[in-house]
Recover the amino acids of this structure.
């Protein structure tokens, strides 16, 4: 079917494909930098820690800042729509100071190359993350909740430096910067005291947020139910982070790999929207655990995007990506995840949301089921291809990426 025919088919149900395409083009997606190098960063880390894990050994991992930026730029060029970049403190350009200064002393200028990169590649803005993992100053697996005051203070300082860096990035890009705070703190086995670490985490967050640039920076806290080696207890589960965000007037970030397996983020979004003016997401794909598989176009992704679209929350929900797969071509992984999120959004934008809502309110559940099933067979793929075409892209990203692999990635031996 051609796009013109698809447009007619959708119009038959009162859906305007042109309006959907125009909206989709403007929705910013924050693309994480850490898919390209297995979350290792530029500080010289050789392995990951803090309960997160990449698996696989596909050749071609970016080993230097130059390689990462080249792969990132190439991946971004294959992604349609409005893009932001999302970087971690561990991706600082330290120059001569490498090995001499630590994360409690990173400064805005260490991130200037990212500003240049973003400007050169037509990026809308930069989001930032302090890095509370993969570092020797984690003590017994703890950072902001450590009972050791020197350790806790070190990480508080890192948090404060991160807020300063975020304000710089925001002003440089003239776009608000979302700073996401996630800590890996927790215990492998049953703790004797579940409260004290949480009180220390709360205190540390308060210290980090004492004096940040409220005009330019949006702080968020990301909760998590467990991690590898942190199976029995985390310091920052959902209830902690929700209450923290609500009482401090900051943002809450939901990662869909961070809940019990039958809980879904799609249902949490409208619950949050009843109370918050902003919600942040890490869109991931948990396969039986927080595995951070590449996001694909599957049911829960569609449900998440439906909740964003039909609650008129495109301006309220900050969408970011969070996955890292080292078992397949990393550029392909990057692009596939971003395109899947775009597909999810387009799918949701092409639903007769208002009509279905009305049917629900009237209690016409038979008709509601009819409509919900009917829309599944609409020619979605043709509208998607038109979207790619308008972005100068095509559905086949496999061949060009394989070419890049041959020419560039295979040389990295
Ligand atoms: C870990 C969290 C966190 C990280 C990134 C690298 O479980 O999801 O968001 O994945 O910050
Ligand atoms: Zn996350």
């Amino acid at each position: 079917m051609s796009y013109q025919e698809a447009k007619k088919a959708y119009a038959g149900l009162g859906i305007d494909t042109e309006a959907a395409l125009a909206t989709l083009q403007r929705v910013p997606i924050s693309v994480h930098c850490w898919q390209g190098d297995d979350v290792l960063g530029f500080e010289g880390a050789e392995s990951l820690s803090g309960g997160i894990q990449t698996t696989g050994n596909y050749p071609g991992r970016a080993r230097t800042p130059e390689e990462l930026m080249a792969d990132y730029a190439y991946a971004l060029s294959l992604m349609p729509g409005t893009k932001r970049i999302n970087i971690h403190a561990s991706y600082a350009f330290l120059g001569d100071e490498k090995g001499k200064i630590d994360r409690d002393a990173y400064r805005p200028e260490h991130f200037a190359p990212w500003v240049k990169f973003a400007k050169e590649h037509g990026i809308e803005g930069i989001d930032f993350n302090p890095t509370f993992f993969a570092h020797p100053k984690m003590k017994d697996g703890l950072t902001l909740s450590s009972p050791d005051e020197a350790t806790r203070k070190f990480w508080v300082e890192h948090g404060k430096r991160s807020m300063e860096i975020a304000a710089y990035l925001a002003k440089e890009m003239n776009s608000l910067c979302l700073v996401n705070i996630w800590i890996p703190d927790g215990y492998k086995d049953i703790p004797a005291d579940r409260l004290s670490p949480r009180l220390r985490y709360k205190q540390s967050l308060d210290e980090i947020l004492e004096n940040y640039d409220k005009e330019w920076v949006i702080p968020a806290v990301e909760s998590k139910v467990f991690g590898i080696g942190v199976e029995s207890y985390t310091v920052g589960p959902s209830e902690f982070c929700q209450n923290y965000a609500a009482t401090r007037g900051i943002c809450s970030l939901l990662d869909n790999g961070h809940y019990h397996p039958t809980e879904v983020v799609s249902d949490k979004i409208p619950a949050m929207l009843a109370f918050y003016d902003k919600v942040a997401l890490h869109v991931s794909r948990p396969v039986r655990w927080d595995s951070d598989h590449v996001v694909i176009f599957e049911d829960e992704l569609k449900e998440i995007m439906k909740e964003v679209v039909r609650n008129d929350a495109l301006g309220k929900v900050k969408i970011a990506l969070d996955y890292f797969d080292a078992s397949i071509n990393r550029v392909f992984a990057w692009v596939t995840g971003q395109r899947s999120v775009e597909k999810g959004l387009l799918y949701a934008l092409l639903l007769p949301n208002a009509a279905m809502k009305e049917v629900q309110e009237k209690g016409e559940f038979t008709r509601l089921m009819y409509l919900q099933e009917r829309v599944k067979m609409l020619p979605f793929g043709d509208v998607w291809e038109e979207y790619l075409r308008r972005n100068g892209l095509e559905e086949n990203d496999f061949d060009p990426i394989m070419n890049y692999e041959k020419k560039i990635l295979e040389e990295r031996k």
User: Anything to note?
Assistant: Strands lie at 28-32, 82-88, 126-129, 177-181, 186-187, 217-222, 233-234, 251-255, 279-283, 317-321. The two ends are 45 Å apart (CA to CA). Residues 278 and 316 are 5 Å apart (CA to CA).
